[in-house]
Write a structure and sequence with these properties.
Length: 248
Amino acid sequence: MSTVLTQTARDNRGIATEGRSSEELRDLVSHWGAELELAPAETIVEWAAATFGERFCITSSMGDAVLAHVAAKVVPGVDVVFLDTGYHFAETIGTRDAVQHTMNVNLLSITPKQTVAEQDATEGKDLFRTDPDRCCALRKVQPLADALSSYDAWATGLRRAENHNRVIAPVIGWDAKKGKVKVSPLARWSDEQVERYILDNGVLVNPLTYDGYPSIGCAPCTRRVAPGEDPRSGRWAGTSKTECGIHQ
């Protein structure tokens, strides 16, 4: 199939690059999804970088730097997108800064259109409490969609072991809402594999992980988790909400 170029975008380094059509991107997913299902994480990232070039990035919530570390080994200077919601724990911001200064990545901190104060003025104070879905939409989902406009593919640290809702996460999938290829190089990794990789490679980890926060989101919506609880039970505790909307 011939390449159909549908848009010209300028990537974050200021270089004009061409994007593939949705049809071509879906064809890539259909062909390579099964092919790479059992491949090592490094091979998956290497394929994505070779296929999409500067129209490929990874995202990180800075719970740890495992995905950034894997990617930087095979794609030095890879774009790492971080959503700075304005509600993060100081430890999360500190982890982001440490990644930026110690790893060979191009870290991009993305902020919502409104500051927290501006959002309080237009939406009412503490929207995270009164309407957490809208708060996530304004401070996470839309900013990420805007940030990904210059990319054809994005990689996440999504793992099937994290909870039952993520068991079907494909290694190479099609994100219909964003019109992007969604790459999950760590999808098949167990908790034990993550821990071993961190120890073997001295990977940066958000210190809150060792203080009862196995899953770290925005400070107002994240609590400590008791031993034996679901690792994600501390997210939006007391509500039926389980995802911010980015992976839905």
